[in-house]
Amino acid sequence: MKKAAVFLADGFEEVEALTQIDLLRRAGIDVKIVAVGEETLVKGAHNIGIMADEGFNYDSLLAFDAIVLPGGMPGTENLYNFAPLKDLINRFNDEGKVIAAICAAPSVFGRMGLLNGKKACCYPGFEGYLKGAVVETGSVSRDGNVITSRGVGTAIDFAAEIIKSLLNAETADRVLREIIYRP
User: Fold this and answer.
1) Which of 130, 142, 166, 172 could be stapled to 2 by a disulfide with Cβ–Cβ 3.0 to 4.6 Å?
2) Mean pLDDT in runs of 10 for the chain (183 residues)?
3) What is the DSSP letter of 76?
4) Who contacts 181 (Cβ-Cβ below 8 Å, separation ≥6)?
5) Residue 103: active-site member
6) Which of 102, 103, 122, 159 is catalytic?
């Protein structure tokens, strides 16, 4: 069974996080909600509290197949400022594992230098943080192991692309049909 970790830091965008957690689980992916910080109760950008499944444990996270970063502010900054997460992202990228980010969170990858020559998209206004990227304006960009998306309105498309990457297009299509998604 494929495993994905969705990382929450105080100030995350709730819809972006929960859409990924829900749809990836519907696809049969083992999703863990991982807190970045001291507490497992993480407050979103709109003051909605979500209880994470676990705190950050570098060694146990190595068994995962994908890292997913929701956007939101100051959540994106809190993710970027958490050095152990950046170390894990670098390792996943080096190993060709999926690294995925939506909204402002692709800026984490850009500021880390992971987007050089890669197609990527983000929330409008954050393009300057996508250092070296070929910036696109579609709902989702996928270049190798890197998947990026633009915001709340593209969260379902983003989840479908992660499902395709970890499993296959048929499973992604099944999940989209089950939720009555009409692009």
Assistant:
1) 166
2) 98 98 98 94 97 97 98 98 98 98 98 98 98 97 98 98 98 98 87
3) H
4) 156
5) yes
6) 103
